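Fold this sequence, please.
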Amino acid sequence: MWNILSRGMDKVITCFNKCPDASVRLICFPWAGGGSIHYARWAKTLPSSIEVYSVRLPGREGRTKEPFFQNMQEILDEVIGVLLPQLKEKPFALFGHSFGAMICFAFAEHVKKVHNLEPIHMFLSGASAPYSEARLQAPRRSHLSDDEFLIWVTSIGGTPPEILANAELAKLFLPALKADLYVADSYRCSRPSKPFLSCPVSCFDGKEDSPHDLQAWKIMTSGDFTVQMLPGSHFYLKEAANEKYILDIITKHIETAEMDYL
């Protein structure tokens, strides 16, 4: 059984720096079309007391031959199926940007309601709450034509221009992005009538990005809630200064939560 679980972990989770003595795990969810490498690299900067688990979805990196997931429940079934023993073993925090923030919410809601587990902190970036009017009224991007889709992807930045300019590379990159956006477009959840979490929630966003309803995230927790705006557009977090700032904030909050937990 352990070998089966281990193989599942290696397929779904990228962990560049295994830290069995870490006191907290930071579970990171990818943006639409994204892989696991960007977040996995955070292990080089974060202290060894924080073990970084970066989620790898099908259809990318070492899973290119696997079919894309069609809905949020498929993502939750796989990721929670693999991570549940780890979630029970020691405290965990969550980070997600854009589509990843949406997965964060679905993940946190599921593990709380089904397993009575919750993160010690949630870090959400570049996204309106999935139950907010801003999100529900957002344009559906997954149904755009290829040409319209390329124009939109170029406008939000974050994708190396050499990929978008090369038709063959674009054909490799765009299907994962479209598949994830289809999941995002299809995902619906109820607006929480009362907080179901008690952990702190920290939101980040780029000042030049399209406006997001960050305040709507507040209603899901009775814990502290903060919003911080950083320079840049949708992929502001890829800029070195912003990334350092976010990692410093993550470290500070997790270390504080860890002391409270102990």
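Strands lie at 13-14, 24-29, 50-55, 92-97, 121-125, 201-206, 225-230. Residues 51 and 76 are 21 Å apart (CA to CA).
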